[in-house]
Amino acid sequence: MTLEQSAPAGSILVVGGGISGLTTALEAAEVGYDVYIVEKTASLGGRVAQLNQYFPKLCPPTCGLEINYKRIRDNARIKVLTLAEVESVTGTPGAYSVQVKVNPRYVNENCTCCGECSAACATEIDNAFDFGMSKTKGAYLPHGMAFPQRYVIAPEIIGTDDAAKAAEACKYGAVDLAMQPKTLNLMVGSVVWATGWQPYDAAKIDNLGFGRYPDIITNMMLERMASKNGPTEGKIVRPSDGKAPETVAFVQCAGSRDENHLPYCSYICCMASLKHATYLRSQYPDAEVYIYYIDLRAPGYRYEKFYKMLKDDPKVFFIKGKVAEVAEEDGKILVTAENAVSGEKSSRAVDMAVLATGMEPSLAGAKPRADLVFTEDGFIVNDYTRGGQFACGCANKPADVVSSNQNATGMALKAIQTLVKR
Amino acid sequence: MQKKYGVYICTGCGIGDMLNVEKLEAVAAEKRFDCKNHPCLCGEEGLNLIKADIAEGTNALAIAACSRRVNFDIFKFDGCVVDRVNLREGVVWSHKREEFPGPVTDDEKADEYFLDRIQQMADDYIRMGMARIEKIAIPEPYQLENFSKKILVIGGGVTGMGAALDAAAAGYEVTIVEKEDTLGGYAAKMRRQMPVQMPFESLIPPVASDQIKAVEASSKIDVKTGTVVARIAGQPGDFTVTFKKPGEKIEFDVPLAVPEAQRYDENGKALDVDQIREIYVKINEGRADVLQFDPNGSKYGAVILAAGWRPAELDAEAFAHLGVGNADVITNHQFEMMAKEGKVVRPSDGRPAKNVVFVQSPGKDGDDTDFDYCGSVTSMVALKQAKYVREDYADGKAYVIYQHMRTPGLQENFYKSMQQDPGVFMTKGEVTAVESAAEGLVVTAANTLLGEEIQIKADLVVLAAGMVPATKDDPVVNLAYRQGPGFREIKSFDGYADSNFICFPYETQRTGVYAAGAIRRSQTIEESMEDATGAALKAIQCVESSNRGVAVHPRSGDMTFPDFFFQRCTQCKRCTEECPFGALDDDERGTPKPNPTRCRRCGTCMGACPERIIGFADYSIDSVGSMVKSVWVPSDMDFDEPPMRILGFVCENDAYPALDMAAMNRISYHADVRIIPVRCLGSVNVIWIKDALSQGMDGVFMMGCKHGDDYQCHFIKGSELMDVRSSKMGDTLTSLGLEDERIAQFEIAIDEYDKAPELINKFVARIEEMGPNPFKGF
Known about the structure:
The complex is a heterodimer of chains A (422) and B (778). Chain A is an alpha/beta fold. Chain A has helices at residues 19-31, 61-73, 116-120, 161-169, 219-226, 269-283, 301-311, 401-421; strands at residues 11-15, 34-38, 78-81, 84-92, 95-102, 124-126, 135-137, 139-140, 152-153, 182-188, 190-193, 197-199, 216-218, 247-254, 288-293, 316-329, 332-339, 345-350, 352-357, 359-361, 373-374, 380-381, 389-391.
């Protein structure tokens, strides 16, 4: 056995357990380095866990997540901390001290995932995983593909009877309501930020009517609806009446390429809407899809082919023009746009409008205490000369999953270089 | 190893409520295995129970509890073989007492012949687990005799140099081989390049020149210019590479694969393996065989393929409307070369080219696609080149006509900064004609933002031709593999050396060879350099994994590898042909030579082998076959109406998790089904199916990943190969007097957890209709 032929010097900390973070962590660990993954939520998986399918293959993201979870299971070098946030990073490349706050799950490792706690719990809370379109019990499993597969007690029910009932229902002593937040101090050689993105808040875009009319939804909400484990068990329906939509409009660049919102292009929204058109067209063979765009950005031969496939669909219509307004009129959603080529303003009444909202870096708001350089918009700038800390995936720039994973693989090497230099 | 067996039954999570644990223990007693149960086996007390036995010498354990996908870390015991008998998700969570009642009254409980289907299922799973731990062994890693950690980078452009510098910075020795006489590739030939970092606003000098200096200064990198790879033989960790001058013909030029067209006779009938081998030998006359290693070859551990691209040439006929053929209508590549030399001028007369129109899309018949092999790079190149016009002439004007301005992500910043330039005009439009006029050219465009039809006078027209990957013309990597020298799927990727996988962009069918840069997809310099770093990591990971004797993705860390019992090999070549990773090279007799570090451990060879001579330490014809044989098949001697026995081989990557998820959602399927997880459907050997049917089982199904162009199989072709194998079983079934319909294969995606039980139930219903297997009871 030559397992220890390349003994690792120091560890790598990966902040964020989405697809980019998982990639960096696994790729580094499989070279032979020790890695911590610090994930803010109760489960690994990140944004992609919420997606129904990936473009352009139309395959389920859980397929890749499952393989990655298997790789974690088989690799003792990876330590996963969930419900954990990095509070500060001090030190220099090769020798960082990282303070991590671990929030209580109120469920310990005795949890067998039997579900009795959830059954005993009466309170229902908004399910953020479904963007509030569904409820979960106060004791819940984040989702079917949660990793670790372990229940969580929502902080909302702590101190209520419900929490006590959940604790009582557990035969395995897994519910621990006295659990307190704790702070860990980790010594690592390098830090990779894979903090990802969040959907831009569509309510901030006044003219697009989100939040005022129920049948105006966001692309990520549509993604949840299309998912079998989502609020409608995979059926895409009008939120107002639960009916099948016959006409759907997609509003591209909802917030992106807009100085008042996100000045950059969010990279994925064109492809995402094309993909959404396939969801709709396969569920409703007669439905019509209207896509309003400025430029259709389908970069690379695979995406171009996908776009071509949609162009060949006689019920998918592409309209080059920026949408000026989305509102409701007589129970329909009215989309008004200016055709960029003809200059004509036109309105179309549809059953449902989907706003292709862009991606905002998760660190656009509050920043961790760490020596990082941010763009005005909150992306982390990589400084390879200084090294030590790096950003990958959408913490660094808007990107699709393929490019994020290419970049996340590369950042594993940058982190390793830091350890080797020391 | 000397084994001491133990069976551990967890009665928690509803297992003890639904099943008769005493009966389960009685099953363990059939083989006189020690058996213990605990209400929470995964808890401290339960684990201590197991650990105490291990301390006493127990080393082969069947843990009858939850799915192997949970509690993976706590039921792992050093020096022990373990099977996870899935009673929770596989039995109690996926079956309901309302559908399959158990004994309730005292009479029923006392009735030996009471048919409790769920209990029988659990009993069988324990038998199968016990059978498996009897047959499996602890794997020992494969160790190469010679080992090199050195990395070979093919291509000395920004991608290749980037990869080399990154690998060197992590401490690895690297060789760059570049076919031209200087390093730098295309990126060094540019006047200026797109920005590589924030704020992505202005052009920068080519980064290639700094890279060249860094490469030259590095003690870890050696450079071979004016050199190409003649062949790469061997396997990761131990590649033997022969270099040569471009165009040279040498003995160690790589053997070629038999072209697709030559694999059929004049009537279109597929030739057999021996006939194809004859052609193979003929076309490779004068070239050393793949198994003959160049004694003067250089040793490498892994390869990075960064051979880049060539500028596309535009066909004058296809693009006649764009004036191709006119001296002043040139491609973006020709423009770049001119701009590097000096000011931009008209090639026809050398006069300044002050009005330049950049055409992004051929714009014919309302088609809005760009030229072939463009990606979004050419949009940005046009913006960059528009800037050159403005740099060269204060009164210069650049017009960019596009269908879609493709500057995704943060590249939008550069687009925006260009919009500030009053001499750069950009419009969506369809270029309908480029024609000669009295002075220069006239470009006509329709449907533009400036009007329905516009005409622009131009000194020069630049067409946005694409970037053709080097692998379109030539395998480049020249692997001396029996399956052929190139990447295997290249056609479905338009000639790019790309990966089929979204989640795993570096995975291809050739272990230890990682592509990066414009050879995998048209990419900017920034993207290519990032890609290079990723490929360097994968190359390093591959040599380190090979050194440890473990598999790389997707079975990373797996220490098993296929073992061949060569005495019984009949040289049928099926394993060599079917291996998705080209891990086997057979000799002139057809006996396979394994290359374990090329292998990804999917078991396709094991599934393919008609002699059943291939197996892994913990996964073999015998281990699975014994599980099949351990299933109790009741006949009418046992019950008036005996229950059916349906066997399912289920892919552990996607279908098995889907069934687990169905169980979590309490979706049930028929209790007469027995599931065996397999590494990949490609590893399913038809002998298991035959055995199952000859012992009286009523039906066998396979459940695996989707195949086709967008296949989801992690091992490329597993489910497809199995489909072919089972379709060929018709004769065997007929000889057994059985209907074809007793075998079925289903494709399932991991998220179709509602569909998986449905498919199973439909299959069971179909078998029920057919009636029992007549072999039952014999």
